[in-house]
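Mods, move this if it's the wrong board.
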Amino acid sequence: MNLLPIFPLDLVLLPGVPLPLHIFEPRYKEMIGECLELKKPFGIVRATGDGLASTGCTAEILSVTKKYDDGRMDILTRGVDRFELLEVNQERAFLQAEVMLVDDEPEHAPATLVERALLLHREVMKLAGGGANSEIEAESHNLSFLLAGSLPLDADFKQNLLTTTSEEKRLEAVVEYLQAVLPGLRRAAKARWN
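Not the wrong board. Structure tokens:
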């Protein structure tokens, strides 16, 4: 039985999205140390007062950006695959779980929807002072995750995206979300310019 080490956090990691982490708790220093040694991923699952979300995302460790004398470390990870938690195992200092990877439905989002999402995202980034993120291309795999992951969106919204297995439905949700926040951003930008 292959168990995935689990890191419960109050955030949602999306596939393809980078996430820097500061590892300081002894159990997570042990977990990350093992993942580095064995070159294996770990899972990030959103933890709330109600417990763990049923869907999470595997994280690959891209680099250790800083090591501290006391064993703490800063690492850069990136989301890879979504998974369903099947059974949580508490035999170690850190949680592990039996998981099942989740695949998308084999369909493509319409080009008009992709363009609309990219256009709205560029405007939001510009108004928020982030500049247009040129790295996000229309052909990007999991475009919806990359767009949502580049913005400070609500964790519930991101968790819903993570559980949706249709890229078209996810892009529709992202477009709807961006359309809802744009009027406020436009007003705030206009007030700054006046």
